[in-house]
Every structure is written in C-alpha cells, then in structure tokens.
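Cross-check.
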Amino acid sequence: MNIYSIDQLVALAKSCSPIYREHYRDIRHTATLTDLPVLSNETLMELVHARQPDFVFGEGAMHGIVFESSASTGKPKVTPIRAR
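Predicted model, tokenized:
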C-alpha cells in the first residue's frame, strides 16, 4: 500500500481532474487536510453548467447528457452518458 502526502494527493488531483485543477488552483502547499476547500455539490454543478460537461467528467466521446431536476432546489443536475 502506498502512502501519499497531502501535497502529493493535491498534485495528483490537479493533474488528473479538470474540476480539481480549477477548484484547487490557489493551493500551492498544504499543511493539513482541513486546509483544502470542500467541493460541494452546488459548486460542482456550477462548474458543470459553466462549461461543457465533457470538460468536467472526462475527455472523449459522450453519447448523451441527461439533465435532471432536484426536487428540493429545482437546480438541474447533469449525468453524462458514455459508451463502454
């Protein structure tokens, strides 16, 4: 089992995830886990709606997108559909 530092995990998240690259853009060096900003569902949906969903969920061909409404907030959520 590998053990990684917080800095290594942040670097990995930023290099592999467009969402965390943007969400952690101001994180340079982190001493503790509590220093990291939490990615809330609301923030995630703002990022999804501000850009194309394939930017957020991964690159490559998508076969469709389903927009679902949340009964409690009325804010639509996005579910990408990809071929296997």
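The chain has a mean pLDDT of 74. The chain is about 40% helix and 15% strand. Passed to J.P. for a second look.
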